[in-house]
Specification:
The complex is a heterodimer. Chain A is an alpha+beta fold. Chain A is built from 18 helices and twelve strands. Chain A is flat. Chain A starts with a strand and ends in an 8-residue tail after the last strand. Chain B starts with a helix and ends with a helix. Chain B is built from three helices and no strands. Classes of the chains: A alpha+beta, B mainly alpha.
Amino acid sequence: MILPMARVQLLGPRDLLERALAFLQEQGVLELRPAATGVTGAPALVGPCPPAPDAADRTRRAEEALRRIAALCARLPQGHGEGEGPLSEPGSEALLAQLGAMEAELDANEARRAALAEEADAIARFSRLVVALAPFGHGLDPALEPEIHGLELRSDPEAIALLGGEVRRLTGGAYELTARQIDAERTGVILVVPRAHGRAVTALLFERGVDEVKLPAACASKALVDVLLHVAARSRTIPVEQAEVEAARSKVADRIAGPLASSAVAATALLGRLSAEGTCGATRFAFVVTGYMPEERVPALRAAAAAELGERVALLARPPERSEWPQVPVVLRNRPRVRPFERLLALVPLPRYGSTDPTPWLAIFFPLFFGLVLGDVVCGAAGVVVALVLRARGTGGALGRDLSWIALACALSASAFGVLYGEALGELGAHLGMRPVLLDRRHAFMAFLGGAIAVGAVHVAIGMALGLSGALRGGHRREAIGRAAKLALLCTAGVSAATAADLLPGAALRPALLAGAGFLAVAVAAEGPMAALELVLGLGNVLSYARLMALGLASVMLAEVANLVATTLRPAAAGIAIGVLLHLVNFTLGLISPTVAALRLHYVEFFEKFYDEGGAPYRPFALAR
Amino acid sequence: MDKVLIAVSAAIAVGISAIATAWVQSRIGAAGAGALAEKPEVRGAIIVMLAIPETLVILGFVVAVLILTGG
């Protein structure tokens, strides 16, 4: 059913508007509507609520805070701590200042982290060079203040000789170059030059695109021995410092992750309230918040409003007028065993408020049609097992639970029809002693066809009755008369068909035809000449249910073919294997075809008679969770 | 000879309607795939539209059964 809704108005003095909106947001039950629409005479008394003087600034600051919080959270490792307490109010400058301080702290931490990583990398590469070239020494005069350049080059003797020539030209021969293979592709090179030529050599290496292993700045102007000692010492201390930086980073995350998340929620809520203010109505001294909510929750909201906001605020509620129905949001409420079938409605737009929720009918006829088509004890039992396993495992969350419930209903229906048809993997059931209770659809084609069309006629008639009921509820008398006439005409057509099939005495034919002509005249008088065309379409709708018989017959014939292959093909093992394969194919088709056919029969043939689509989903004003 | 004519008639009834359904579904399927790529929310309408021309072959099948069974 479609839950009855109430149009609710919360009225109070202007100074309480912000508190009232915060209260409604916390309650999360009211879907807001602009106050000026849908209330008779309201535009003359109530105008749109003017924004607060600082609303634009608060909105800007809250949006900026949200952006910066998202950026900060993306930079943080996973924080688990509760934090050091809430941040300042969202939309305030104080919050932005706090965020700035956090950003600066993180910037410093990240800068230190990057510097240590860079130094560790440089030291690792330099150590690799030193290890490759050890024992290492140079014969340059200490008075020239030798400067060490570490290089990693491709193993190319010509390139190294060329480099040596260039450096000789720059330094006048005062240099020393030591090269040794690091691995199959790279050669490590230590180049020692006087400090006076150091800059020129660095420029040369840069121009030639040589990958220089830069030493940490602390090694600049140090003697080789001191450099080696420094490298050894830093190799030990850098991991410790890196661990300290990571610990500090985790500590920061633990401290600020919680408050940041809370602040993001608060900022989102503030933006929601500021936006909601625009939908409120106001007079000079009072405000009015208008919206729709489930009628059953109005007393609880009224009590909560009285407790939270006191007597200065009043809550008015009334059922929506018929003219408002197109705007009223829709909430479906069905019994727990029927509710999973609401998923099948997700493929079509929601029904409008005030119209009929077809979910209970879907819960009856969808499994019925499925079983009527598949109708096999073994396939049904396999479906039951699959559905129960999926349900027990909780596959697919809430959606999976609902779908497995639908599958279970369909599989049970298929098993029941299997008993009625006396089928288990086609005619295999007959060999095992099963006898058809209702009909043997492998041979009684016409009875099966008649049964499918009769089920269709009943389904369409129910749809027409629901349409008639909707027209009466909506107060459309002429439409209701037309629909009633068409429904009666369908019944007389059914009586005529039953008479022709010798299910009713032949004497009933004439009165049925006369009554049918009368009902046709009433329908044309009520709805115009198009009613006659609709009757032809209605007949097509009923005949469309013949697909239930066609698909069912195809299913049982495929099972028979599988059995035939299994028993006649030689060697026997190959025959059985192909037979089993065909049964699996039949089972798979038996899951898909009846589902699509049953959905189509509902969406096209059944819904066409009464379904009034276009309802808006219920989206209450609430905190983002 | 009568049996042959009956069988051919039934085959024509179901065959031509099957070809018609296949042709219509190919057009609807292609257009529906394009529409789904841009607006996934219309999947329900596409399924319904794709299933509508099935009525042709179902009615053809019913006619074929009536021919075969002499109903």
